[in-house]
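Incident log, support desk, overnight shift.

02:14 A customer reports that sequence design results differ from what the structure should imply. Their input is reproduced verbatim below. On-call engineer (initials T.W.) acknowledged and began investigating.
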């Protein structure tokens, strides 16, 4: 099973932009307009601002089937965000999580984001995140009359990016490519999308000056680079050579001569091209300048939040489990407070827990700010395996850590079980003057009283011999607030849980 999954993953990432796979971005004219404005901004900009970090809020929309199944694994998003930040970090553009993942249950958006219902779902959900780049992760994209599978696209009309979930992972370039479109970049082979270069049709040397869609074809000698193809002069001519490169080896099979009989030297490893297998992809200085200018333009004011994201590195070696110890059998099955040390620079944690023998049934919890998780829904006596993935809104590079096991206990904390109430009761409730009384029907030597807040954190603890009758407890700890608390009384015979409201 494990092996099969691995093979499938390799296939999905190795096929990027290879034959039959392509990008569905179509310029409705507005991208060209923005790019022209960005070029003008670059030319007229008096001071270079290249050393300034640009922080880009991004919202990931996880699209599932209507029954909630089939969505992308959140870990692939965290992996890809780290990857995107590697790709864009060299020129000081950094993406950060605008907020929590947004889940959308919709069969139509899941399989046909370009259809009427899909588009209306996109519009509704984009509105919820007006200050972010909105990126939708779907299962399938209808390809219409295209030559194969659309991997992703940027739509200028909706100003959103849509990507197949299979294209998210450490080796895929699709996200970095589509975000290039978001920031006004065109394909270096602009105009050749639907009708890639074919020597039998277009000649070698080239015999045409415009593509079948009427776009000016770029010369090698740079005399028309400002108005041809992608309008940028440091991306050399490309007539969509990548999509038909049979070896997928990141090499143009030449020589191919342009209209002036100059030999074409293309740039295979450009993020905005379609060449496969290049290893390191790059944006050119003009592409970078255009993207930065686009971000800084007034059209992108909604992205200028002023937020400086948390991007300091998290050291995986700072992960230490506090509770439960590896392989420990815990006391309860419905009150297990997983606890680990705070990790420097981590502001969020993902906890992944599954029955030890069924990793496919993992449940994921996303926690803000605290380094523990109270579980109240485990199965009596069952063995569990759990991982923690620390991250922050702009640092998602650390993989899941841990992989420790524990066995759920045989006891219930039994908050709804009132059968033992006659044995032990607590009053007054609410407390007054920080005092509670335990009325016990028997005496219990060496008992423990633990007081937990409602998020499962231990607030106070007493060791005492409970006598038959009234026992007084002074709640003097400064940690108490006006709130509900769980009081856990552990005796040798039985464990009791009671709720009290602490009033000051
Ligand atoms: Zn594209």
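02:41 Re-run completed on a clean worker. Output:
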């Amino acid at each position: 099973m494990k092996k099969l999954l691995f093979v499938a993953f390799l296939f999905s990432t190795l096929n990027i932009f290879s034959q039959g796979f392509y990008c569905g971005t179509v310029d409705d004219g507005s991208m060209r307009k923005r790019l022209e404005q960005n070029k003008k901004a670059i030319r007229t900009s008096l001071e270079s601002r290249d050393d300034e970090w640009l922080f880009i809020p991004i919202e990931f929309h996880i699209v599932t089937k209507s029954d909630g199944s089939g969505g992308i694994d959140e870990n692939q998003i965290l992996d890809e965000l780290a990857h995107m930040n590697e790709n864009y970090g060299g020129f000081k553009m950094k993406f950060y999580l605008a907020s929590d993942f947004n889940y959308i249950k919709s069969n139509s958006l899941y399989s046909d984001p370009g259809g009427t219902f899909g588009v209306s779902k996109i519009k509704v959900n984009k509105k919820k995140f007006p200050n972010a780049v909105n990126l939708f992760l779907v299962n399938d994209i209808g390809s219409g009359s295209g030559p194969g599978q659309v991997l992703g696209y940027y739509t200028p009309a909706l100003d959103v990016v849509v990507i197949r979930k299979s294209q998210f992972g450490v080796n895929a370039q699709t996200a970095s490519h589509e975000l290039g479109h978001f920031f006004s970049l065109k394909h270096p082979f602009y105009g050749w999308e639907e009708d890639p270069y074919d020597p039998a049709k277009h000649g070698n040397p080239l015999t045409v000056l415009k593509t079948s869609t009427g776009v000016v074809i770029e010369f090698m000698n740079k005399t028309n680079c400002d108005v041809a193809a992608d309008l940028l002069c440091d991306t050399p001519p490309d007539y969509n050579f990548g999509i038909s490169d049979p070896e997928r080896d990141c090499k143009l099979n030449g020589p191919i001569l342009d209209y002036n009989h100059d030999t074409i030297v293309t740039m295979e490893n450009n993020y905005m091209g379609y060449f496969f297998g290049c290893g390191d992809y790059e944006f050119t200085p003009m592409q970078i300048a255009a993207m930065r200018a686009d971000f800084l333009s007034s059209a992108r004011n909604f992205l200028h939040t002023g937020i400086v994201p948390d991007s300091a590195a998290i050291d995986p070696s700072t992960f230490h489990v506090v509770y439960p110890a590896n392989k420990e059998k815990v006391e309860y099955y419905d009150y297990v407070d997983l606890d680990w040390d705070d990790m420097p620079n981590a502001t969020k944690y993902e906890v992944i827990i599954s029955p030890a023998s069924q990793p496919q049934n993992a449940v994921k919890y996303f926690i803000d700010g605290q380094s523990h998780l109270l579980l109240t829904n485990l199965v009596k006596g069952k063995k569990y395996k759990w991982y923690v993935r620390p991250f922050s809104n702009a640092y998602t590079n650390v993989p899941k850590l841990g992989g420790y096991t524990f066995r759920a206990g045989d006891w219930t904390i039994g908050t709804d079980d009132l059968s033992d109430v006659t044995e032990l009761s607590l009053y007054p409730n609410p407390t007054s003057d920080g005092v509670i009384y335990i009325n016990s029907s028997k005496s219990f030597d060496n008992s423990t009283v633990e007081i937990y807040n409602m998020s499962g954190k231990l607030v106070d603890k007493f060791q005492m011999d409970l006598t038959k009758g009234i026992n007084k407890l002074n709640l003097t700890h400064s940690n108490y607030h006006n709130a509900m608390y769980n009081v856990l009384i552990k005796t040798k015979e039985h464990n009791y849980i009671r709720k009290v409201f602490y009033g000051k």
